[in-house]
């Protein structure tokens, strides 16, 4: 095999494919990237029995062929090369990369031992990449990082007709985001539990490529995403996701509206004095929100903001990290806090005007920290 490709093109492609490599592959060959040069195209693939990645880039092919090389090492080498065309050529059991005066010799692995990549299921529909990426980023903040609860490390995708609903929870907060898409079958009704990490990578790497094809297998074991010549597949998380929709309150007699960016900055400043596991308190009164943190002999901080309140005065406390992540997920000028009572979870939704209606396509529910007098 022998080909030439631009350094930046190769580096970006190798880095993308290497993202899916397992840090602890079950067999050595799964640490490799499969490179196949044919018909003026270089394809790259990675697979770890759970997640696969495949893409192709244009290349000047002198000799067609297929090789398997260490993916992470190849990615590190490509990033270190000078900005110039890269020549890649096999020599027996080794492959040589040449870029100007830089030359690397890498050992190859047996191609025949590499498993066949899973085929992309039939496309179930398409969605706008940027809108999907934003929706994913808003929801995955609530997914669990605890691998001992694998079900909660996933994001539930519920599909009904032209509506996709993304749901995530780590038991302390919930996030729900609705987004429109174009299904192949207008009567589609299905669901999938996808790893949050997989969705995050799809959002980051395919979100800017235009429309994304979403493909779900009929046996509900595999999901695929495809855009801009790139394709990734992932096994779905096995198990029944908790029914969390019912936790979002239907009636909230108390609600307050605050400017989103101002509140996010105030929470960031006030929480500087909050010790680990110490909450930030929010006291809503008519026309004002007071934030404070710290008690007794410890450092203390407080700040006042304008706020619109409907209903009785209310004081609540939140984990500052959960509150900040939720606020930063909103792109609206204002955010509405909706309460049933102080000890119950608070629901955050977007609001464009201080006295306007709220939008409920994105809902973030966060558990409060119980105060001594509650």
Automatic annotation (TrEMBL):
<comment type="subunit">
    <text>Forms a ring-shaped head-to-tail homodimer around DNA.</text>
</comment>
<feature type="domain" description="DNA polymerase III beta sliding clamp N-terminal">
    <location>
        <begin position="1"/>
        <end position="118"/>
    </location>
</feature>
<dbReference type="InterPro" id="IPR022634">
    <property type="entry name" value="DNA_polIII_beta_N"/>
</dbReference>
<dbReference type="GO" id="GO:0003887">
    <property type="term" value="F:DNA-directed DNA polymerase activity"/>
</dbReference>
<dbReference type="InterPro" id="IPR022635">
    <property type="entry name" value="DNA_polIII_beta_C"/>
</dbReference>
<dbReference type="Pfam" id="PF02767">
    <property type="entry name" value="DNA_pol3_beta_2"/>
</dbReference>
<keyword id="KW-0235">DNA replication</keyword>
<dbReference type="Pfam" id="PF02768">
    <property type="entry name" value="DNA_pol3_beta_3"/>
</dbReference>
<keyword id="KW-0239">DNA-directed DNA polymerase</keyword>
<feature type="domain" description="DNA polymerase III beta sliding clamp central">
    <location>
        <begin position="127"/>
        <end position="243"/>
    </location>
</feature>
<keyword id="KW-0963">Cytoplasm</keyword>
<protein>
    <recommendedName>
        <fullName>Beta sliding clamp</fullName>
    </recommendedName>
</protein>
<keyword id="KW-0808">Transferase</keyword>
<keyword id="KW-0238">DNA-binding</keyword>
<dbReference type="Pfam" id="PF00712">
    <property type="entry name" value="DNA_pol3_beta"/>
</dbReference>
<dbReference type="InterPro" id="IPR022637">
    <property type="entry name" value="DNA_polIII_beta_cen"/>
</dbReference>
<comment type="similarity">
    <text>Belongs to the beta sliding clamp family.</text>
</comment>
<dbReference type="InterPro" id="IPR001001">
    <property type="entry name" value="DNA_polIII_beta"/>
</dbReference>
<dbReference type="InterPro" id="IPR046938">
    <property type="entry name" value="DNA_clamp_sf"/>
</dbReference>
<comment type="function">
    <text>Confers DNA tethering and processivity to DNA polymerases and other proteins. Acts as a clamp, forming a ring around DNA (a reaction catalyzed by the clamp-loading complex) which diffuses in an ATP-independent manner freely and bidirectionally along dsDNA. Initially characterized for its ability to contact the catalytic subunit of DNA polymerase III (Pol III), a complex, multichain enzyme responsible for most of the replicative synthesis in bacteria; Pol III exhibits 3'-5' exonuclease proofreading activity.</text>
</comment>
<keyword id="KW-0548">Nucleotidyltransferase</keyword>
<feature type="domain" description="DNA polymerase III beta sliding clamp C-terminal">
    <location>
        <begin position="245"/>
        <end position="369"/>
    </location>
</feature>
